[in-house]
Write a structure and sequence with these properties.
Its cofactor is Fe(2+). This protein is of the alpha+beta class. 22% of the residues lie in helices and 31% in strands. It has 12 helices and 36 strands. It starts with a helix and ends with a strand.
């Protein structure tokens, strides 16, 4: 029985922590009971986990949702009914010792549960993943487990014991040595699996490589994609002696897949080549059913992963996850760090220095973009990605508009014009999925330094679009002459105004970007010779003190517009000189074609 002094002490502690919750998350605690509890002093940063929360709070009812806030010391748990939440509050507040150093947690009621972390899906499988439950009998399981006599010849990884048959998977090179097969082939006790598989689901698959993994409770495996060039499609994994949750991740999607004991998981296509998979190291798993969350105690688990070694290079449709593609295109790919540094020096820093002068030169909106913006109905939401000085904002009073840019100087111009703006990179737009009716990106994507980053920007814009939404993208054109007609860019230099004359600079200066990368410096108002160039911007200050800044640009052929292909798809085609692809984004899938 608590004394009045103890009750008062808990109340003071909770009141103080409620301010911390508000400051860290923006969520307001309330005095009246609700279905949602804030754990005010325990979260990810001090070691609290989803399974610990579920294991304790499920004692008082069906847990509907758990939310752990990245980088914060608080978390939230939601019940299906008010009575359960009230009981948990009364029994656990100031008494349940699951906070840091085994100290008690302090609870408060909140009205709404905000999603601070990536949304987990429990009832969806990645495309290409099939889970065949009860694929083998208990007797078959016993037969296979008898093969698992791990001795000194077996490998020992940080998180598990491993044994290879047919070929050894070498973790130092993340591949197999295809010229050195092992003497020990896949045991004949496994042969019945292929007969059974041919009779049921997947025909014609006979592996020549097997890895047996032995997991003790609490062990797992880091997220990874099996090396593309090492194995053919598909890859199959048989779970023995214990069930487990395997997490699949791609972009911002996170699917929690339950692999029951004696089930066979078949990864092919997108699930095999484009999604990472891994097992979180813990002693019990959190499982979500129709009635809420529950936990499953892990036992010692043995997995038989069957593969067929690939002879030759991978030819999959997922080049940015493919080691064969990277190896064959080393001379075309700019490393990610180099690309990011290049953009910082020759894009972000440049625009920060020239912001006011740049804004002074950007007044009149392009007619096609203006027509696009003005074509949306009352209440539509438009996002200008890379809005600059806001030249395309404020032209349609019937819609709600937001603009984002990396340049604080240009955003200050927008702020002074009373536009709704925020600071963000086009590679990571901090908006929810499927909220915008329209996006525009005018003269932005050509500043990104490699193919993967350009595709990332397209994916981000497609992600924020609603189904049926539209996005207009303009990129600079390399060819400044069409049908013998010169562009306005060329004509701004008087000596280029004659129809037969377009000057091409033959002795361009080159700037060294990294050890293996040099970029030419373009001569303004002349035809372009290269796909990737540095374009000078001469900052007008005083005649005696003129400064020149070099902006990095990758040229493209034409303007494009993302339009619905079907009710749930958008499409865009971009031609960046040598870089050509068709990008398709559905609500649940993004892929190259």
């Amino acid at each position: 029985m608590e004394t009045m002094s103890q009750i008062k002490k808990i109340e003071r502690k909770v009141k103080k922590l409620q301010h911390v919750v508000l400051k860290e998350t923006g969520v307001t605690c309330v005095a009246h009971p609700t279905k949602i509890l804030a754990i005010c002093n325990a979260g990810l940063v001090n070691g609290l986990t989803e399974e610990i929360i579920v294991e304790n709070f499920k004692k008082y009812g069906n847990v509907n949702k758990v939310c752990l806030v990245p980088g914060k010391s608080c978390s939230f748990v939601s019940y299906r009914d008010l009575e359960s939440a009230t009981m948990a509050y009364n029994c656990f507040n100031g008494k349940l010792n699951i906070a840091q150093e085994n100290k008690p947690v302090y609870l408060s009621f909140v009205e709404n549960l905000v999603d601070f972390e990536e949304e987990k899906s429990w009832s969806i499988l990645p495309e290409g993943l099939v889970v065949l439950e009860d694929f083998i009998s208990e007797k078959d399981e016993e037969t296979l487990l008898e093969l698992c006599n791990f001795d000194e010849s077996c490998g020992s990884m940080k998180n598990r014991q491993v044994k290879h048959y047919g070929y050894e998977f070498r973790y130092d090179i993340n591949n197999v040595d295809k010229d050195k097969p092992l003497k020990e082939k896949i045991p004949m006790e496994c042969d019945f699996l292929w007969t059974k598989l041919n009779e049921t689901y997947f025909k014609g698959f006979v592996p020549n490589q097997l890895t047996i993994n032995h997991y003790m409770p609490g062990q797992g495996i880091p997220h990874h994609i099996d090396t593309h060039s090492a194995f053919e499609d598909p890859i199959m994994s048989l779970s023995l002696n214990s069930s487990v949750i395997m997490d699949f991740k791609c972009d911002k999607k996170h699917f929690c897949v339950f692999l029951p004991r004696r089930s066979l998981a078949i990864m092919s296509g997108e699930a095999r080549y484009n999604w990472t998979h891994g097992i979180t190291p813990r002693k019990f798993d959190v499982i979500k059913s129709q009635i809420g969350f529950n936990t499953l105690q892990r036992e010692t688990r043995v997995s038989f992963t069957f593969r067929r070694v690939l002879q030759g290079n991978c030819t999959c449709r997922y080049p940015f996850k493919c080691d064969s593609y990277a190896k064959n295109n080393e001379d075309k790919c700019i490393e990610e760090k180099v690309a990011a540094d290049l953009e910082k020096t020759h894009v972000h820093d440049v625009y920060e220095n020239i912001a006011n002068h740049f804004s002074d030169t950007r007044h009149k909106p392009w007619p096609n973009v203006l027509e696009f913006v003005q074509g949306f109905q009352l209440g539509s939401l438009l996002v200008d990605v890379g809005c600059g000085n806001g030249k395309y904002l404020g032209h349609n009073k019937n819609i709600y508009e937001m603009g984002c840019d990396t340049s604080l100087g240009l955003l200050e111009v927008c702020k002074n014009r009373n536009f709704n703006i925020f600071n963000a990179n086009c590679l990571n737009i901090p908006l929810k999925n499927n909220i915008a009716d329209a996006c525009i990106s005018i003269a932005v994507i050509h500043h990104l330094a490699n193919d993967e980053r350009r595709l990332m920007a397209l994916k981000e814009m497609a992600r924020v679009l609603t189904v049926g939404g539209r996005c207009l993208i303009y990129v600079w054109a390399k060819d400044q002459k069409k049908d013998n007609e010169k562009s306005s860019y060329i004509k701004q230099d008087r000596k280029n105004r004659k129809a037969e004359n377009i000057e091409i600079n033959k002795n361009e200066e080159e700037i060294t970007i990294s050890e293996n990368i040099k970029l030419p410096v373009h001569t303004n108002r002349t035809q372009f010779k290269h796909k990737d160039v540095l374009v000078p911007w001469k900052l007008k200050s005083t005649e005696e003190n003129k400064q020149t800044f070099l902006r990095e640009v990758v040229w493209a052929e034409k303007a494009v517009e993302i339009r619905p292909l079907e009710t749930s798809m958008h499409s865009v085609f971009l031609d960046f000189g040598d870089f050509k692809h068709r990008f398709v984004a559905a609500k649940a899938r993004v892929s190259l074609r």
